Amino acid sequence: MTEIHMPRLSDTMEEGVISTWHKQVGDQINRGDVVAEIETDKAVMEMEAYDDGVLEKILVGEGETVPIGVPIGLMGDGSGAAAAAGPSDSGAQESSAGSEDAEASTDSAAAETAPRTAALSSGESGAEPHGRPKASPLARAVAREKGVDLSTVTGTGPGGRIIRVDIEAAAEAATDGAEQRRSQVPESRPAERSEAEQRDPDLEEIPLSNIRKVTARRLTESKQQAPHFYLTSAVDVTDLVSFRADLNERLQASGGPKVSVNDLVVKACATALRANPSVNVSFRDEKLFQHKRVHLGVAVALDSGLVVPVIPDADRKSVSEIAAEGKEKAERARDGKLKPDEMSGSTFSVSNLGMFGIEEFSAVINPPEAAILAVGATREEVQVHDGEFVVRKMMRMTLSADHRAVDGAVGAVFMQQLTSLLQDPIRIIA
Amino acid sequence: MAVITYRQALHDTLREEMLSDENVFLIGEEIGVFEGSYKITAGLLEEFGEKRVRDTPIAEEGFVGAAVGAAMLGLRPVVELMTINFSLLALDQIVNHAAKIYGMFGGQSSAPMVLRTPGGGGQQLGATHSQNIELYYAFVPGLKVVAPSTPADARALLKASLADNDPVLFLENLALYNTKGEVPEDAPPAEIGKAGITRTGSDITIIGYSRMATVATQVAEQLSEEGISAEVIDLRSLRPLDRETLVESVRKTGCAVITEDDWLTYGVGAEIAASISDGAFDYLDAPVRRVAAAEVPLPYAKPLERAALPSAESLKTAVRQTLEAVGHRR
What we know:
heterodimer; A: 430 residues; alpha+beta; four-stranded antiparallel beta sheet; 10 helices; B: 330 residues; alpha/beta; 2 domains; seven-stranded mixed beta sheet; five-stranded mixed beta sheet; 20% strand; EC 2.3.1.12 (chain A); lipoyl (chain A)
């Protein structure tokens, strides 16, 4: 079997187009015969055969482009063995896949062009293609800024185009009522007032902190890109609460720091993640990554926004170590002294709003993590045990998981183990 | 501060530069004994001698090539091409040699030279003598193309061009030679690549260069009486192009009209319009309009020539129409 390769026909040639095949499958080829015409970056050139044989397979069709060196045809003895064996390296497959991609993108380009052309022509007739109102870029920008819905505005420009004055008129009409209700508001920082404020004196624009900007961007991405699903469990934490009280007494006696319920939850999560590595994953760039270490992020709310200090290797730390490290990092976060690397690299996060009396909530995943646990408040509830009413301390927690990376059952097993750990707290520190 | 003509400003600046730097020399057709077709070089042969004011045969490619060589060897040639139309004969020297020397020799050599040349129509000189083909040169990386519209700019840009280490096409305009303006003698050289805002305004931006920049300024003055506040930008330099200034202005006004003496299709205005679309798309309230010359070889007959060139009236109409379309309340 002999492969025919895309030849290098000039110094600058990197790829070539098969312009014409002069031989068909089954044709006898003699050395020196013109097999094909190749179009390079400079010219169309004839390609001669270096060997004798029978053309058994054409790998690259006329009009197709491939890099130099890629097999374009197979020659054999005429038995068809060469064709059956196929080309030796994957170059041909890659190139054909490449050309399929090219075709696909051409198709989608064509598909995109078609409605666009239609939009242009119907635009001229004054219609609204796809229900999208005709508006000047400036009108669109001003509408965005003032929060005016373009579809509610009548354009007075050429062909009914919405122009800036139309948006301004609409915004003015909307704020007229507000103007009348205006109370005596002290005019602070008049020079710095934004346009929105000038329209509505009851509105004050707050400059975005960097943290808030980043939080806004990342959480939007997360909610848009990660398909979230939620699993809620109710945990009986009666034992956990008394365990914690007991533990803190002992720790205090030995001069150690107190641990919170959240520290126990963090430690329990780390243990459950170690046991369920399928939850300790990330989904990034269409790829699934398994983390070999367990780094827990603990969400802390600041005035300037949300930060998530990370406790690295939380599964290998004791609860009191986690408590001390968490407390110290949260304090530094409040002072704005947390270093960026202390806020990144977490593989799972815990968010606790129990101290605010929130019973149950679902958190947004902190990308690229695949899951986050939202922990609610502990409160006494009447439960039924063996047919009797008993009062137990209950806590609800909700796992938000990225369904691209974690399946429902995998998340459920994790929650089951976590619940079981929290209900049998001695195992948390085991 | 003296009020002098554009012509005088060029003459005075050339003389000044020759006095201060003995490497500066002039070369071109009829610039010596005849003192130049437009008398820019009047008296300079007498003052500086034949070595520094060199009359040449009618051989554009030859004397531009000689200037490229002189520039590479350390002199500062100022070439006068009688009109930009004749520069086509030296196209190879300008585009393939002067422009490329710095890049092709890895910065080891350059061709610091100034190619002075008048262009423009309106003088009844016929189609081959009335062109605005500066675009051909503005297209070429390695060249700089400047186009002063006032006597003060003529001085400031000529000084800057002579100080520049790249070849500079210095575009003059026949219609501007006799225009007058104040020329501060102690003004520093201009910054090549920096556009000028000749008039500030808030409703619309008018962008022009060379003769049309002066027309635009007059038009803006007249329109202000109609309650239109137009900002006028004089590009001054076609390459490098000061996109920042024009984009900033359009971001402020939301509308733009571009005016140019050259032809519409593929013209300087197309480049400006693309820059505006790129940098100020969200700030546009109306399509960018262009006012340019009719797409014909310029006629000889006076009424036809007038009709073919962009005028103050056609510019005014374009500005009014643009503003009417966006509901500008006058």
